[in-house]
Design brief:
The complex is a heterodimer of chains A (308) and B (427). Chain A has 308 residues and is of the alpha/beta class. Chain A has helices at residues 4-9, 15-33, 45-58, 77-90, 99-104, 122-132, 198-208, 271-280, 298-305; strands at 37-40, 67-71, 94-98, 137-139, 156-159, 187-190, 219-226, 229-232, 246-252, 262-265. Chain A has nine helices and ten strands. Chain A is globular, with a radius of gyration of 20 Å. Chain B is built from eight helices and 20 strands. The two termini of chain B are 40 Å apart. Classes of the chains: A alpha/beta (308), B alpha+beta (427). At the A-B interface, helix 1, helix 2, helix 3 and helix 7 of A face helix 2, helix 4, strand 2, strand 3 and helix 5 of B.
């Protein structure tokens, strides 16, 4: 027998369950309000959590839309292996679109020089994919605590027919009433884990026992040091004269394009270790993202053009 | 069966979430206060601190300008103002906090309303030298209009009035007089100095006459679990789950987020608008079935009977207590440059239900500085707050906003631009 008193006593709902409930609500709104949504999947922890939340939102049915992976071609091999393993395990479908194809078609030109990265080029591949597949909404793993331009982002973020974000003209978002109405050719980006912090994501992965790529745990890797950031070495990367490739115990705090994802010197080999490390750390996770160091408004500028 | 709320969890997983809003203008020390809360709870990181230190130096500021942390957009940094709602996050061992930081000027009323719509608590800053001013009244009014359950008045810059008790008492009495005209349930007063940290996180030794809690103590301990309505069952159907798989060939579940009440398998329920009765068969989640569900959980409910139920319907108790009407009176905050059209038609979203409506009448416009009702002015433009009557194409099933924030709120959408133009609180 259940008593009202017990329910009152038990009312305290922990912060992760409340964030989860909010995210599931947002993901279900996407399925209800859009005709052809997708979930942007990078193989990083945020998109893995996002996919996990989507599975929870529609259980016992399958996630009613396909995933989309924008592949820079400069991936960590472990990420792609993990993606394929996860899709096989869950029976979900992941469509991949390659930046290399955009380069071959002449849609974008590869950056040159020492800091060359395909990070910015992804935007064109992404927008082309949305148009080609006639997708009207892309769910992304962006979080407001990641970066200051993201702090102003809505859950439901409108994009015009050029895929552009207009930060000064965003729709007000009140209560849990999300407005996904749009004109033909326009689309939405939706960020269900807007209110999560990096620590929330890790605590949730621990609480829900979610599988993540081995890259997040300590491993030996060839790395080099550039402008205060340890970068993973790969054959296609150019080194400056003073830079030496050495082997270190490292792990990834974020996983992105290999050319701009910094790695952390760490021996953390369990989720508990990682949570302790994040709780004690004094640098933000994007502190190691070379793509954000380009200017004070680097993220805002990329987002306006249609970046994730 | 399991209960997801009583699962064993390490201490750091057992935190509550508190959403609060801070309203204030450039000069009353709001950024300094937020900066201090973030800094003292170690939510500002070294690279962020370095970035804003060098940005402040470049601009020629004497002190590190903590507002640069929250003013994320290029235009905001150039103009030195906060334009939009900025969300900031920090946590202490007891709670995780989401701050909706909003600008205080009257031209940003819509941002304040937006930030307030999801807040459990409002922090209102008062400059000890000036006391309760027009802006304070406005912030108090918006907090009461949006029914933020708890209000903390921080009387700041106590260092500039020699930490005198009578200054604090005078402001407290004056505010209580204003609050008497408003619907404010729980209000607390804390004398602070954000700049020097008095009574923010640590107790001040400069104000021994003050025996109350510090701001941080209130944020960490104020009781919020009782703020939600646990009596009246309100389950707006958001999405219908039909796997049509070999394992679940006939499964039909109604997904949604509980907006009120506690539901258990076996509970008799009524479905609106059809009025059919049924009983809850199960409450399903990915992690297993639940013994009961309560707000703000997102769950999937199955019913004993095979009924035609879709998005926009509402599952309630047998005696729902909901109002059903097409003629609705509400307080509206206008959010768009284009003024409200009297007689104009708008799309209306209420819970998960979409209808169309027409603006029938403006009862009065609120002067949010003087708190006077102006019955003559029917021009409702950006940032105006007014009492209006609308007529909907189909009945809405609603509570008054006072009873339930989620079944008592709605938004108006311009059909031509698709923009969200109005925020409504049903009276």
């Amino acid at each position: 027998m259940l008593f009202y008193q017990d329910i009152m006593e038990d009312f305290k709902i922990n912060h992760l369950r409340e964030l989860e409930a909010e995210s599931i609500f947002v993901i279900r709104e996407v399925a209800a309000q859009f005709e052809r949504p997708t979930l942007l999947f990078s193989g990083g922890k945020d998109s893995i959590v996002l996919f996990h939340l989507a599975r929870k939102a529609f259980w016992p049915a399958k996630v009613p839309f396909a995933l989309l992976h924008v592949d820079t071609g400069h991936n960590f091999k472990e990420t792609l292996d993990f993606r394929d393993w996860l899709m096989a395990k869950t029976g979900a479908i992941c469509i991949a679109r390659k930046v290399q194809d955009s380069i071959d078609k002449g849609r974008v030109v590869e950056e040159k020089g020492i800091n060359a990265s395909r990070n910015v080029l992804q935007t064109v591949t992404l927008l082309d994919a949305l148009e080609e597949l006639k997708l009207d909404c892309a769910i992304g793993g962006g979080r407001r605590d990641e970066e200051k331009a993201r702090a102003k982002e809505r859950f439901f973020s409108h994009r015009d027919e050029f895929g552009q974000w207009d930060p000064k003209n965003q729709r007000p978002e009140l209560w849990n009433l999300f407005n996904g109405r749009k004109l033909m050719g326009e689309h939405f980006r939706v960020f269900p884990i807007s209110n999560w912090t990096e620590l929330d994501v890790w605590q949730y992965i621990f609480m829900e026992d979610i599988d993540i790529p081995s890259l997040y745990f300590t491993h030996k890797r060839k790395v080099f040091h550039r402008d205060g950031v340890w970068l993973a070495w790969a054959p296609f990367m150019q080194l400056k004269e003073s830079e030496i490739v050495e082997e270190k115990d490292v792990r990834c705090r974020t996983i992105g394009d290999i050319t701009c994802t910094g790695v952390t010197l760490s021996t953390a080999n369990s989720l508990e270790d990682i949570i302790c490390e994040i709780a004690a750390t004094r640098v933000t996770e994007r502190g190691g993202r070379y793509d954000d160091k380009r200017s004070d408004a680097a993220m805002e500028d990329r987002k306006k053009e249609g970046y994730f | 069966m399991q209960n997801i709320n009583s699962e064993p969890a390490p201490g750091y997983l057992d935190m509550e979430l508190l959403r609060f809003t801070t309203a204030g203008s450039v000069d009353d020390g709001k950024s300094t206060l937020i900066g201090r809360l973030l800094f003292d709870s170690k939510a500002i990181f070294e690279d962020q601190m370095e970035a804003i230190t060098s940005a402040s130096l470049r601009k020629g500021d004497e002190d590190v300008n903590l507002a640069l942390l929250t003013d994320g957009l290029r235009a905001e940094r150039e103009q030195g103002i906060t334009i939009d709602v900025a969300y900031r996050y920090f946590a202490t061992p007891k709670r995780k906090f989401i701050i909706a930081d909003t600008p205080g000027h009257i031209q940003y009323t819509r941002n304040m309303v937006t930030g307030a719509s999801t807040a459990n608590l409002a922090v209102i800053l008062v400059d000890a030298r000036y006391g309760v001013i027009e802006q304070t009244q406005r912030h108090a009014y918006i907090s009461s209009l949006l029914q933020i359950p708890h209000i903390v008045i921080c009387i700041n810059k106590m260092d500039l009035v020699e930490f005198k008790q009578d200054v604090f008492e005078k402001i407290r009495k004056r505010f209580l007089k204003v609050a008497g005209k408003l619907e404010i349930k729980d209000v607390r007063f804390v004398p602070i100095s954000a700049k020097y940290g008095d009574n923010v996180v640590d107790r001040s030794s400069n104000m021994n006459w003050y025996n109350g809690p510090t701001l941080m103590y209130l944020l960490e301990n104020i009781h919020i679990a009782g703020d939600l309505n646990l009596v009246d069952i309100r389950f707006p159907v958001q999405y219908v789950i039909r796997p049509q798989s070999d394992k679940y060939p006939d499964y039909r579940g109604y997904a949604g987020r509980l907006a009120g009440g506690v539901i258990k398998p076996g509970d008799r329920v009524r479905i609106l608008p059809s009025g059919y009765e049924s009983a809850i068969k199960s409450i399903d989640t990915f992690n297993g079935p639940l013994e009961y569900a309560k707000p703000p959980q997102s769950v999937t409910v199955t019913l004993e009977d095979d009924l035609d139920i879709s998005r926009g319907d509402m599952i309630t108790g047998i005696k729902s207590g909901l109002h059903a009407s097409q003629d609705i009176r509400l307080m509206v905050c206008w959010l768009n440059q284009k003024p409200m059209q009297l007689g104009g038609k708008y799309l209306l979203r209420h819970t998960t239900r979409d209808v169309r409506c027409v603006i029938k009448n403006v009862d009065f416009k609120m002067d949010i500085n003087s708190l006077e009702k102006n019955k003559a002015d029917k021009q409702i433009g950006l940032n105006d707050i007014a009492s209006v009557c609308i007529k909907t194409t189909r009945p809405l099933f609603y509570d008054s906003y006072r009873t339930n924030r989620y079944t008592g709120s709605l938004i108006l959408i311009d059909e031509a631009t698709n923009e969200t133009v109005g925020a409504g609180m049903i009276i």
